Each structure stands twice: as C-alpha cells, then as structure tokens.
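Can you give me the bound-state structure? Components:
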Amino acid sequence: MTHDEIKSYIEKTFGDKLTLLDTGRCEPVFEVKLADWHDVARALRDDQTLQFDYLCNLGGTDTGERLEAHCQLASIKKSHRVDLKVVLDSGNPSLASVRDIWPAANWYEREMWELYGINIEGHDNLTRFLLPDDWDQGHPMRKNWDAPDFVRFPEFNA
Amino acid sequence: MGVLKDFFNLVKGMTITGKHLGRHAVTIQYPEQKMEMFERSRGVVVLLSDKETGELNCTMCMLCMRACPTAAIQIDAPRDENKKRVLNSFVIDNTLCCYCGLCEEACNFCAIKMAPLYEFSTWNKDDLVWDVKKLQEMGRDVPYEDTRKKKPAAADKPAAEKKPAAAANPGADAKPAAPEAKPAAPEAKPAAPEAKPAAPTEKPEETKDEAAPSKAEPSDDDKKGDV
Amino acid sequence: MSPLRTEEFTINMGPHHPSTHGVCRLILTMDGEKVLKVEPVIGYLHRSIEKICENRTYVQCVPLFDRFEYVTSMSCNMVFSLAVEKLAQIEVPERAEYLRVIMLELNRIASHLLFYGVTAMDIGALTPFLYGLRERELIVDLFEMTCGQRLTYNYIRPGGVSRDIPPEFIPKCREAVKIITEKMSDYEGLLNENPIWKVRNVGIGYLSAEDAIAWGVSGPVARASGVSYDIRKNDPYSIYDRFDFEIPVHHNGDCYDRYLQRLAEIKQSLRIVTQALDGLPEGEIQPKKKINAITFKPPAGEVYARVENSRGELGTYVVSDGTNKPLRVKMRGGSYNQLQALPIMIKDCLIADLVAIFASLDVIMPEVDR
Amino acid sequence: MELYGIFEWIYGLLADTGLPEPWLTFVVYLGLGVVIFGTLSVLALFLVWWERKIAGHIQQRFGPMRTGWHGWYQTIMDAVKLLQKEDIRVTTRDKAVFFWAPVVCFVAAYLAYVVIPFGENLWVADLNVGILYIIAVTTLTVISLLMAGWGSNNKYALLGGMRSAAQVVSYEVPMAVSILTIIVFSGSLSMVDIANSQQGNVIFNWFIFKPPFGIIAFLTYITAATAEANRTPFDIPEAEQELVAGYNVEYSGMKFAMFFLAEFVNLFTVSAIATTLFLGAWHGPLLPSWIWFLLKTFGMVLLLMLFRWTFPRLRVDQLMEFAWKFLVPLTFANLILAGWMKYAGWHW
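Here's the bound-state model for the whole set.
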C-alpha cells in the first residue's frame, strides 16, 4: 500500500483513536491516544489489510517538555510501514505493554523502563538491563538527568 | 555409500588446507616490514607547516576545535589589543581522539591533517597529550597538497619580503575565516588586494558557512554534554 | 530401584568467554551437557551513544554511528545519513549514490566473510577464520584507500560521501571482486559438505518463520527461516531498485541454512558491486549546498530510516527540534532482536549447540548494548 | 649409522666397571629412562613448534619467527616462561587431586615408550604383551584428566573431565579392536614381533597394505587415536569455544605446561604406534632404521595436524554415536572377517 492509502485506511478504520501528524517527509506518523494504545496496536497487527506483523522499533523520547513513546511497524507480507507516537502522562509516565502482540517488544520495553522511567504495565520482567545491576541514579536518557562526576563536553566560546 | 561420500568430502577439505601449506604467507613481519600506508590513511593528528617558510599553517580559526566530536582539540588563542589572535596553546589529547577526520575537513587552511602515521604508543598516558611543538614536529614530513588560497607571500614576492611576518602568517589576522575580514592587518595592505578577490571565488559559500558560527556563537546552544 | 537423581546447575557463560563475540553474558541452566534455559544478560558494552548523540551536531553523530555496529560501519553511516536526508529533504548526487552502494555492498561482503570465519572457529575449525579474514583484508584496504580508515569509516555523510574514490580504486575493486569470487569455492569446499560441519549445524537452532517475524528477527537469519524480506527489495532506499540481484532464501531455519544464506548473499553482493562499478557516473559527491559540520540545522520533525545490514534491519529514529543537534536518536540493530530470540531456539540443545547457534546469529555486541 | 651400536658400546663400558648384577641392570635402565625422557621432552617441544609452524603455513601466516631461525626455540622460551609464572591455585580446589593430576598425566604419557621400538634393536624392553601394555597405560591419561576436572572445582573443568572420560572409554574399544586385527596378521602381541613381521624392503609387506582389512583397521585406528590424543575433531574435553579450556581451565604455570607437553607426547605416541603397527615400523631401504621410524612417525603427526587445522569439532553426543554406532561395529566386522580369512588360510 502506498502512504496515502495507508493514511486514509487507518484514519477511516480507527477514527478518533489516533490523529495524523504528517510531515510529508517520511512514512505516515500517527499519534495514538494513550488509553487506546494497546487496542490500536493489536488491531494494526490483526487487520487483514494492514497486517503489521513486524515491530521495527519501539522507544521513548524526551522532548524536554513531555515524554513520548514512538513505535515503528512494518508488514512483512505487505511491505509497508507506519510510525506511531504516544504522548505519555508526564507526572506518571506509563504505557501498556505490547509484548503479547509482538514478543519482540520485550527488550525494547525494558529499555524504555530503564532509561526513561516509563512504567510498562503488564511487563513482568522490568529489571536492570543495560545499566549496572546496582544503578540508582535515575533515568539517564531524560533531558533533566544529571549525574555527578561527569566530564562535560566543553562549551566553545570563540 | 554415504560413508564414502563423507570420507571424500573430508579428504577434499584436507586437500584445500594442504594446498595452502606450500603457499607464501600473506602476513608481514611488523617491525621489520611495514605496510605501505595509503596517502589518505587517517592516523594521528598533526599540524602542518608551510612548505617554504616552515611556519604553521594554522590561523587559529577554531573550526577544528568546534568540529571535533570528542573535544580532543583544545585551542587557547585569545585576541590581543589589535584584535589579532595569539596562539597560547594548541593541545590534542590523543586518548580522546576518535580518528574521524572531521577536523581535517573543517580546516580551510591545510593546517591540520590526519597523517598516515600510526606508531606513537607510549608507556605513559600523559605523553599522548601533544602540544603545538610536538604536533608541528610530527607534521614536518607529512606530504600534503597545498589547496590554500593564494597567499600574499606567493602572489606578491616583494610584499612578502617587505613584511615577512604578516605575509608568512596571514593567520595572525583577526577573522581569517571571514572573507571580508581578510586583510585586517593594516601592514599587509599592499599584498591584500590580490588576495581579496581570490578568496571569495574559490569556495564562497563554504567559507561563509564556516564563518557563520563564529559570529553567531552565543545562539548555539552548546549545552552540557557528556563525554 | 529409584531413578537416578540428577540436579540442574547454573553455569555462567561470559562476559569473558571465547565464543560470546564480545561481552555478552549468558546464564545457562543446565542438566549435564544439556541446556534447559538461557538468559542473555547484556549491557557490558553500553556506552550510551544515544545520549551522546543528543549533545553532538548532526555531522558529529556520524563517527558515533561508526561505533554503533563496527563491523559494517558503512551501513551505520548510511542509515543516519538517510534519516538526516529525509528530515532535511536533501538530494544526493548520482555519483555519491553509486559510491554508497559500492561501499555498502563491499562492507556486507566483508562482514559475511568475518561471519564465515568466526562461525567456523566457534565450531572448532580454526583455518577458515584466517581465510575469511584474508579476503576481508582486500576490502578493508579499499576502504582505507578511499576514506582513510579500516574499521570506523565515517565515509557516508548526510548529503553524500566525504571523499571521492582515488583513481586506483576501480581496478583494485574489480580485482578484489574477482579474487573473492574465485575463493568462494575454497570456502565452500572446506565446510559446505564437510560431514562434521553438517552434523554440527543441520537441524540445530531451529527458528520458524512465524517466530522470526514475531520476535522482530530480520536479515539473513530471518531469510534462512524462509521469510523473504529484504529492505533493499521491499522498501528500497538509495538506488537499490536499479540493480539486478536476487534475495536468496533458505527454508530450514537452522544454523546450516543461516550459514548457506550468508554465503549466497556474498555472491549477490558481488553482483551488485560489479554492476555499480560499471554504472558509476561522473559528477559531484556532495550536494550543491554543502552540509556544514557545525551549523547544519534540519527542520523540526521526526523520521525513521532503515537499511538492510548484514545483521538485519538497521534503523535509526531521529527527532529534530530545528537546532543543530538532534533531540533524540534511537538506534535499532538486528543483533538486538536476534539475541532476544535466542532463548526460543535452544530446544534440546547441548552447550556445544548453543555456541553454534550463537555463532550463526552473528551477534555483534556493540549493536546490542549501544 | 645405527644408534644401537652406541648404546652397546656404553653398555660395554659399564659392564667393564665390574658393577654387581642387580645394580648394573638398575643403572642401565635408569640411564635408558633418562635418555627416553629427555629425548621425548625435546621432541614434544619440537612438536609444539612444528604444529605452530604448520598451522601458520596452512593459514598463510608465518607462525613463530622471532626466536632463532624461523623461531626454532620459541617453545623452549615458552617453557621457560611457564616455569617462571605464578602457580595460581584456586582456594576451593581439592588439594591432593589438583596437585597430582598433571603429574599422573605427564607420567602416563611417557609410560608407553617402554615397549615402542625406535629402530632395529632400539627398544627398552620387548614385552611379550607389548601392545596390551600400551593400550593399558595410554588409558591412564583419562584418570588424570578426570582428576584435573574434579580437583579444579570448576564447572567448566568438570564438564571437560567428564567429557574426556566418556570419550576415552568409548574410543578405547574401536582402537583396541583395530589393533587386534593387526595381531591377527602378525600372530604376536610383542611390538618387536609385529614390526619384524612387516620386514622386507617392499612396502607391500606393511600391514596397511593388506587389503581390505589393513586399510580399514588403519583408518579406524587413526580416528580412534585422534580421539585418544584429544585432538580436533575430537578435542571436546578442552573445546576452547565451549568450555573455555575444559579440564585445564584452572591450571597455570608449570602444571599447565605438563598437561600441554603430555598432549604432544601422546600425539607422538599414537603416531609411533601407528607406524609400528601399520607402516612397517623401522623397515626401509638405505637410511638407518631409526631415521625411517622418525620419518614415518612424523608423516603420521603431519596427518594428524592436518586434521586439526581442517576439521570442525564434533559434539559430545555425536562423538559417542560415531564411536558406538559406527566405529565399533566396523572394527568388529573387520576383525571377524580378517580372522576368518586367516583361518581359511588365505595369505596376502
């Protein structure tokens, strides 16, 4: 399916569960509502026209103001792709696990939990992963994260 | 017959290894024999000197320092009362260098280069922090193609003789990267008119681009980063 | 008589174990020689490249991507360049595209040659390693000749490539292609039909096509399981749609097929390199408006780019906020998913099989840990 | 030049000193022991160097080059280095077992040389059960490997030790049976008799050329012997890529060197036995007998080295399967057929 077909099809099928954020420069990007994330993910995989059976990538983003989760899906059978984005609640960032839909999400979700502090609901193995086992200095990928004893990249004032 | 076929395949493998037994080695004996390095090989960073005068080509424009992704280059060159840059120190920390070659590409004056030299291991980590003297010495014999814009020295011999200091080292100018600031030093005026038109025609847009940050510096959000 | 009581025991394989290819740690629960459970523990090589990228300008990120997946740095350069080009809508000159394809495919061959040697070494044959590296050296020399480095190339840049090839590149490259084509018979003769090799690999580490897709396994490992999916064909980037090549697919999903798959891919890559050398046009290698290393600012937006790497899908997600530094760079490597899927491949396997399976996945740890 | 003459001359000198009888024999055998021990240790060091050179050339590199001409004393320097190294002992080891394992391994490796004839009249003792003795003492090695695996108190080492026990016990059977085939031909258990029954300057007297039983017995023997010597493709006890270093993972310094040297002495042993049994022992034209013996043995060693640098490693269960399901039936069939032929009076 071409980008336009995917766009119109997804908008038609899911209606108000997601909104199109189109930059026109890459694959269609949809912002999924936080509450509908799991349903939309399952429907995207199970829909016979879309068949997004393959999870390319899943991760968090900290824009400085808010936390987001981004997800890239592809269909092996249909050879098309879509990008999804979920804006998380900044106070208590939390996202439903999609491990039951794509087993591949397992480590990606652990990584999100560890590096961004996004709580993954329904994930049973949220343990230290990339960081040392005794890490207790917060979530390093957040923009406001600050750790002592770090050599700073110098600022250049010419 | 499966057994015989397997046996045959085992023997086939042994003939391949056996065949190599008599061949010449493809490796070399390192300290005695050395590989011929390619001219573009990115080894250690050196500072290049002018082929004629032996002065450093560096104009202290700081572009390499700003292009370096690991902050391995530290240049300290404050402006003096004439708004000329004076080189206090030019230090490259080879333990930080990641050999990406961005400094070489950033430089417009053939001053810094990743030379095809690779033997600089030491027993002491501190010895890997090189100052300008060491860098110049390492770069002494490195061949390079001088792609600089025609300098006053080359363009106008008498002028160069008259004012050797300014001519040999145009980098002493305040803003060498910015074309309009080229003939900043008033003594170099006689030589400058030839240089002035040459400079913008060669790489006009690039030079402008490179020069831009040095003016718009404060807007650049070089926030804290970690190395 | 009561049955003999046996006891499970835990064994710690890695992080410093000869066959974990770097610093991966596997916690094995074993019953004698038999592996009952495997739990990969990663993070020993975590350098937080993603975080560092957020503090570097776009061009300064490219050397960091070199270190993301160092065996095929060209692909890493490529994927970041693709992302930035998509963000900023940069047109890449024709010659640069051809050079990119040549380099990417040469790098794929180099990576598969390394795989050939390393997997043979993990199964006990030490000589193929040296033979694989011998031909890899030809390719690495070509890279050094062009961009100056043998491993971390920093060659493919947003907008094009960093330098044009030297004049002696093309004859040398053709010669290398010829030599590797000849040597393929040696590689195959040493291992393909070797009964010991077959008995060690055939039927070991089975991964079904459904599992491969569900676990996000891509690249040669997925194609050896019968998933005919190659980003070069199915989601073409650069100019791959211009070349005539096939996507080899094997169907048994075991270690042996993964090995055959990679050898078959070397041959296809050699074809692409030959075609690209033939069609290499003259011209510029950088776009007209050159990208400045420090001041380049793509418009705000987010983009996910992906390329087919020798280890599967290599992707990067770049978010720009309009400044000269990316807001977020997420790297996605094929090894990550393949290592993740390792526990489902170990049915009825002994510790020796585990080594064979691990080798056949061709995991490269920096790609996992980043 | 026959070496036997030198030994006879020395024996004559000793006999002239008028030493009383039990002491004379004692001194003579002590001397022989020292000579054999010294020769073999040097030979083992040489074999290590040779293996490295051959591996290097197979892989199109140089191998050792720094110490002397083509690095000829590289292994001596290695041995010196190993002597100087700290002997690291894990605190949780089983002290006695850990200590004695390398010693047993080292001694067991040398025991076989009592009966191996190096040339005409050049042997320590001609036991009438010579080959039986060899089968018995070479098996002692497995005890040492098991001891090392157990004594190290390390899971990898234990796995290696258990593997080696399983392997050596399995491969002992086809090896012994393929040797029996030769005994059927020669009609004697004595190594010297076996060697002598291959006399004659034509190579067709060699037992390997007694088709088809000789060649089958030879191939099965070589396979089993590779396993006995723990070499690729049967090197699973130390399987570097799986068990790090298997049974000797906790050993360092001189203890490791003893295991290492014993491995190469074993390599030479199996090659020497193969030479004696199948390749006409010391018999050959023109050159002195001991040179022929060494030439043939080194030929065998070269073959085993080519195995090592060509083949991948088998898995432990496949190794057992191969021994019990293929080699054992094959060797028994070979033995029975050969015996029947002999009984039927068919001469080759």
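A couple of observations. The interface with chain A takes residues 42-43, 46, 48, 50-51, 55-56, 86-87, 89, 213-218, 227, 229, 234-235, 301-306, 313, 315, 317, 319, 321, 327-328, 330, 332, 336-337, 340-341, 369-370 of chain C (CB under 8 Å). Chain C has a mean pLDDT of 87.
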